[in-house]
Amino acid sequence: MLSTQENLSDTAFRVRENLARRILKRRWGFNLIKSRRRDQEAPDFGLYAIIDSELRMYVAGGTPWAYSLTFDEVMAWIEEVEKPTPPASKPKAKRSKRGRQ
């Protein structure tokens, strides 16, 4: 899966970034925000966070600093959340010993 900025042209990367923003907004009401740091030596330069826009809380990427997700991690988070959860298995009913005589 090509998703890193190094593997894509600048335009293609922005298209994928906007797609991720739309998915997060439409499906869950979350915002994808990118660090505004311009210092390339800063620990959160070019990193992302996913925020619940109503509660104003971090959903992902809030630790160890405010922006801590790479774009690949954002896409992986979306894919993980979209996976259908398997139905819970029902516990097997125990047979009563009184029925057998």
Q: What features would you describe in this structure?
A:
The protein has one domain. It contains two helices and three strands. A three-stranded antiparallel beta sheet has the order 1-2-3. A hairpin with a 4-residue loop joins strand 2 and strand 3. The longest helix has 19 residues. The mean pLDDT is 83.
Strand and helix map with partners:
Elements: H1 10-28, E1 30-34, E2 48-52, E3 57-60, H2 71-82
Antiparallel strand pairs: 1-2, 2-3
Helix pairs in contact: 1-2
Give me the secondary-structure category: alpha+beta
Tally of DSSP helical segments: 2
Strand content: 5-15%
Q: Which geometry do the CA atoms define?
A: elongated
Low-confidence stretches: none
Number of strands: 3
Largest sheet: 3 strands, antiparallel
- Which strand order does the major sheet show? 1-2-3
